[in-house]
């Protein structure tokens, strides 16, 4: 489903924090399904090149997480284009291997390119209570953050091996003169979230890495349900509002991101411009 009208524009559909639940009243569940289908139809009508689903696809309830994944994924598969998925903390109520298989992912962190942009998807739950740490450094990281309850045990960090991979990806992007769009379920700046939701545990370390590369232009995240924005070191950090809170903030249920060589424009489901940002 490519945008044939203007090949210099990369048009992306975007949605986050669906928190699909099968435990609500039947009428509410049907409304959620209908609203999600409307978002997919909106993407199709806007002729997006692909759709980004930024994580927390399911509510992750203990008894119903399997059915939540089954039903939500069935709806998403009605979309005839490509969907790039991000793993959120609620998603991990389902075993990682099963989740990756359902979403068609080889790994929770990955990259892909489109029209001169490299998209780097981070796994923000790499070091978390969900997994056994892979390295001594990761074990120390986990212990350090779990000793600080205010950091929230439903958040996580980017581990050692993923950091090495990230730097290799950024090196490659700079050599190839590509512009980098970072994708992470968790916000990377305190200014773009609140204390209740939290953010990536080792956010400052990751931001410092990103700031050392001129190729990095923006970071798109979810998790904080009310959305946020900050500009730091020339990088736009955009947190999109949650689909599940669409009745509280009807200005954004889902939307599109238009990327040109020097500009990023984010519109809501009604084509209203939410952000119009220069990419330097």
What can be said about this structure in brief?
This protein is of the alpha/beta class and 280 residues long. It has a single domain (10-278), classed as Metallo-dependent phosphatases (Purple Acid Phosphatase, chain A, domain 2), CATH 3.60.21.10.
Task: Offer a few descriptive terms.
six-stranded mixed β-sheet, 27% helix, alpha/beta, Purple Acid Phosphatase, chain A, domain 2, disordered N terminus, 6 helices, 280 residues
Structure write-up:
The strands form two sheets. A six-stranded mixed beta sheet has the order 3-2-1-10-11-12, with helices on one face. Helix 2 links the parallel strand 2 and strand 3. It is built from six helices and twelve strands. It has 280 residues and is an alpha/beta fold. The chain has one domain: 4-Layer Sandwich (Purple Acid Phosphatase, chain A, domain 2), CATH 3.60.21.10.
Text of the CATH class = Alpha Beta
Structural class: alpha/beta
Number of helices: 6
Number of strands: 12
* Rg computed from alpha carbons, rounded to a whole number of angstroms: 18 Å
CATH architecture: 4-Layer Sandwich
Write the SSE topology:
Blueprint: E1 10-15, H1 26-45, E2 50-53, H2 65-76, E3 83-85, H3 96-103, E4 110-114, E5 117-121, H4 136-146, H5 160-175, E6 179-184, H6 203-211, E7 216-221, E8 228-232, E9 235-239, E10 255-260, E11 263-268, E12 273-278
Parallel strand pairs: 1-2, 2-3, 5-6, 6-7, 7-9
Antiparallel strand pairs: 1-10, 4-5, 8-9, 10-11, 11-12
């Amino acid at each position: 489903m490519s945008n044939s009208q203007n090949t210099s524009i990369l048009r992306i559909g975007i949605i986050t924090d669906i928190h699909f639940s099968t435990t609500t009243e039947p009428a509410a569940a049907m409304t959620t399904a209908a609203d999600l289908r409307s978002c997919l139809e909106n993407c199709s009508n806007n002729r997006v090149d692909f759709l980004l689903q930024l994580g927390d696809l399911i509510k992750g309830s203990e008894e119903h997480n399997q059915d939540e994944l089954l039903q939500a994924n069935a709806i998403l598969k009605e979309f005839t284009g490509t969907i790039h998925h991000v793993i959120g903390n609620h998603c991990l109520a389902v075993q990682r291997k099963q989740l990756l298989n359902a979403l068609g992912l080889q790994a929770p962190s990955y990259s892909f390119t489109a029209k001169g942009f490299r998209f780097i998807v981070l796994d923000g739950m790499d070091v978390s209570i969900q997994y056994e740490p892979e390295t001594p450094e990761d074990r120390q990281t986990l212990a350090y953050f779990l000793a600080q309850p205010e950091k929230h045990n439903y958040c996580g960090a980017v581990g050692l091996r993923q950091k090495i991979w990230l730097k290799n990806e950024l090196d490659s992007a700079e050599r190839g003169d590509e512009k980098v769009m970072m994708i992470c379920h968790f916000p990377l700046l305190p200014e773009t979230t609140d204390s209740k939701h939290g953010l990536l545990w080792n956010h400052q370390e990751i931001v410092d890495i990103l700031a050392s590369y001129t190729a990095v232009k923006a970071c798109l995240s979810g998790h904080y349900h009310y959305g946020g924005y900050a500009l730091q070191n020339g990088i736009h950090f955009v947190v999109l509002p949650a689909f599940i809170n669409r009745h509280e903030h009807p200005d954004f249920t889902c939307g599109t991101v238009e990327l040109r060589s020097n500009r990023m424009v984010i519109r809501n489901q009604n084509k209203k411009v939410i952000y119009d940002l220069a990419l330097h």
